[in-house]
Amino acid sequence: MSAKILIVEDEPAIQELLVFNVTQAGFVALRASDAEEAWQQIRDYAPDLILLDWMLPSTSGVVLAKQLRSEARTKDVPIIMLTARGDERDKVLGLESGADDYITKPFSPRELMARIRAVMRRHIPTLSEDKVASGGLELSPTSHRVTAKGLTIELGPTEFRLLHFFMTHAERVYSRTQLLDQVWGTQVFVEERTVDVHIRRLRASLEASGLDGLIQTVRGSGYRFSTNS
Q1: Beta-carbon neighbour count of residue 40 at 10 Å?
Q2: What is the rounded distance in angstroms from the CA atom of residue 52 to the CA atom of residue 7?
Q3: Is residue 143 within 8 Å of residue 159, measured between CB atoms?
Q4: Which residues carry the post-translational modification 4-aspartylphosphate, per the record (predicted)?
Q5: What distances in angstroms separate CA 51 from CA 35, 73, 81, 84, 92, one per listed residue?
Q6: N vs C: which end of the chain shows fewer Cβ within 10 Å?
Q7: Nearest CA to 49 among 41, 60, 57?
Q8: Contact call for residues 163 and 202 (beta carbons, < 8 A)
Q9: Which domains does the chain have, with CATH numbers?
Q10: Neighbours of 128 (CB within 10 A)
């Protein structure tokens, strides 16, 4: 599932360049020219990361970043600020507004994509292409393969995403609602009991490979991936 990146940039030429580079890197590009359009895209598509220009009409990028951090739905969405301002005080102001990183124009596409991937690795490990190893399992997002002791475990696409999320968020308890938001996405409307069905399938596949007890039920709270029995 490709990450969605919202590009908030009012200069058409720069917006097109950013859309091109983001799309070429395999991400889904969303676009907005001002704060109002940005909020509409956020409501409709729930982006995974926001590229935010400092200088926007009506509402500045700094003000918008502060607003995003004050809203429950967007407070954890990574923000990279784009600006022509290179002064250290401006950089500090951008970061204090809630931005996770700051890139000064002009920048190379290679630098931009490196910054995007670095921020995503920190904030959204399930969108990283890095291999994950835990509890005797090794999961590769690029090959879509899970192995245990060198043997491949066959998983459906939803069970794969579910396991990837669990392995990158080990020892934490997640409710069914949280798992639906994180694994299925906020734009997909399915019943909470759907989570139970896929948990059972995932457990069955792991247990068939001799891996018991990794997916734990926490009564009244949800589920947890743990290597501690």
Answers
A1: 12
A2: 6
A3: no
A4: 53
A5: 12, 17, 6, 14, 17
A6: C
A7: 41
A8: yes
A9: 4-126 (3.40.50.2300), 132-225 (1.10.10.10)
A10: 18
